[in-house]
Amino acid sequence: MKIDLNSVDFSDISCASVDLAALETEDDFRAEARRLLPTALTKVGEAVAEQTWEELQKNLSKSGAKAKFSASEKRQFIKETGRNYQRSASSRDKQEVEDHIVEQLRIFQKKAI
């Protein structure tokens, strides 16, 4: 399942710990993006899990199945899927997320000026 990175909530990835003024070169931006990458990959995995969960619930209700899952089962599924995605994301996916982080850092830096 492909997800639009702009729809992922990265708000709890702390950019407060980023010294935006110190980011001058492409290498600076890339190094900071790589530092933030593990948390960002987890967030992407959780977003995919959320979509998957909703689709499964829709399909189960359409088929007439009466499977009820608790909120804690849903949270556990989302957390586990996020961690699994972080560990197993392809190089291409990692690069896409890193590129997105760099783009966001540039936007934050421009707003801070």
Describe this protein's structure.
The protein has 113 residues and is an all-alpha fold. It has one domain. It has three helices and no strands. α1 (26-62) packs across α3. The radius of gyration is 17 Å and the shape is elongated. The N and C termini lie far apart (37 Å). The mean pLDDT is 88.
Rg from C-alpha positions?
17 Å
Q: In sequence order, what are the helices and strands, one letter per element?
A: HHH
Mean pLDDT: 88
Helix content range: 55-70%
**Number of contiguous helices:** 3
Q: What percentage of the residues does DSSP assign to strands (E)?
A: under 5%
Q: How far is it from the N-terminal to the C-terminal residue, by CA? A: 37 Å
Number of strands: 0
Q: Structural class, from secondary structure content?
A: mainly alpha
* Largest sheet descriptor: none
Shape: elongated
Q: How many independent structural domains?
A: 1
Uncertain runs are: none
